[in-house]
Input
Amino acid sequence: MFGKRKKKNEPEQAAEPENIVFEKPEDIIACDNVSFTYEFISDEDEGGSEGGSKEDRKNKKSGDSDNIKYIRALDGISLKVKRGEFLAVIGRNGSGKSTLAKLMNALEIPTEGTVVVDGIDTSGEDVEWEIRSRVGMVFQNPDNQIIGATVEEDVAFGLENLGVPRDEMIPRIAEAAETAGLSGLLKTEPHALSGGQKQRVAIAGIIAMRPECIVLDEATAMLDPVGRREVMKVASSLNKEHGITVVHITHHMDEVAICDRAIVIDGGKAVLSGTPRELFSDPETMRSFGLEVPAVTALVYELRKRGIDLPKDTINIREGLEVLSGFIKEKALPECSSEEALKAREASRAAARDGYAFRLGMNSVEVSGVTYTYSPGTPFENKAIENVSFTAGDGEFVGIIGHTGCGKSTLVQHLNGLLKPDKGGFVRIGGSKMIDANVKVMRRHVGLVFQYPEYQLFESTVARDVAFGIRNDGLTEEETAARVDEALRLVGLDPAEIREKSIYDLSGGQKRRVAIAGILVMKPGILVLDEPAAGLDPAGRDEILGICRKLNREGGNTVLLVSHSMEDVARLCDRILVMDHGRVNMFDVPEAVFENEEELVAMGLAAPELAKLFHRLNEALPEIHISRKIYSVEDAVDEILSLCGMDEGSDSDCGSGSDKSAGEVPEVTGL
Output
């Protein structure tokens, strides 16, 4: 795929003698005892700033300024990336993964130690071009990377910077587009593409420059299930078919499962390394680093804890189907395999759930015939949503899912008056229609938390930022402080410990919680969250979603959650609203929605991993009545043990002894 590189304005060189063979180093990237320290100005009047040139930052000494603070992102890390390897880099938020990625591409240089790329030390003078022509970077948000008016122009951008002649550029663009699966879209405007397609455009732009290695820094974090699959298919093809080294930073363990090797970063150090099978075989160790294992692996692990001898390195649905169908076929009892026994198990699990009874009230939301058109009457006119109608009950937890670009974010911005529907549609909050005269009042009742809410933080301290929304409410200083402390406690933060901290001193998860506290301080009855867990590690995700669940079940808040995670909405939500190309396709309980697996896939979605596994078990063993309504590891364990008369907690051999809700989320520390 790759031809010989020629740097812009590089003079022609004499041909090398044919009998000389230059050996490339086995490792495309080698980090030796690498540390990296970020610095920023802590004075509240100056704002945050990473400072200086390469040499300035390398030579900066702690204490040069009383206002400068230092954060050590990497601490003596050593690792090697073999040429042609597909490597996953995983770890909790703030562990140093993205910093490591920037060092691989010479966007940063190490404070200490060395990073060598294809034999070139990144700390050398004027080596950036050589490094970046070998290692291409694809970032998290595709919208931040695309600048061309068409796909073709965007893919050409890097080649133009390299000074590639036009007659060479055209076939390279076509080749890169074909490799990324974009051949029919070269003349398409990027705004008309899905999130997965946009990310493939970003990858195609890197491919066209013919790098030795591509680093994907959370490149699938903002994509729907189909978009994620598209990007991973391209990455796998680049690696297996074209020999490109891929370094993939991700929080999705199903993506890690297809990699050759994975490295766990924690506290700026490489703490674990091994194949995905080796790492996933020890779920407890993974969880100790704030990570998780694939749902199938977690299920097998729980069954092994109960004495069932199954391969502990089972990591995907295909393998899970093979080992579990064999076990169930051998061990299932006839009296537990009947249709009547299945109905009894499902009824028992349904009764154990904390069910919701629909009701109208001050926290109910009614959307009726809402249509919204961006840039009407112009060449850029775009009807984002059309004739959307639904009602969320008082105290209900509603999930909103759909492919990227289907209108989810446009819809939720109508719920607190940020957008106004086209003529004829309306929104009612607690029975009152949202009109111009009362939008300001309604906004106090409907708290909207945007994706990446920590980007909304701007005050000098946590307390000042949380208090911003109630600053003009006529409260005394004592009343304001009490409200702020109450909001911080609701999101699991200790006011005494955190209220006077600078927002720059917070971890990613803490920033997310402080931003949510800034909404809760206004005491909204309705909470609308647009991808609140996007980009968070598993532990951080469970913290945020646990807060949402607690506010809903204990605080009585109506919650509307936009999410790309089918697992999250399956275990949390009372009902799920499915959007497709700006319209409502389904609005039903999770069991009814996820039963339509093929229809969901056609819409760019998917069923949760365990639901897919049990759908296939049901189909593979038609003589054994196996539930298809399985979304949690607890319910999966209960179903299998009950089928085999091994249920630990039931008086009846075939009954359901599970006392855990399918919608249960892990306990949230501090709540």
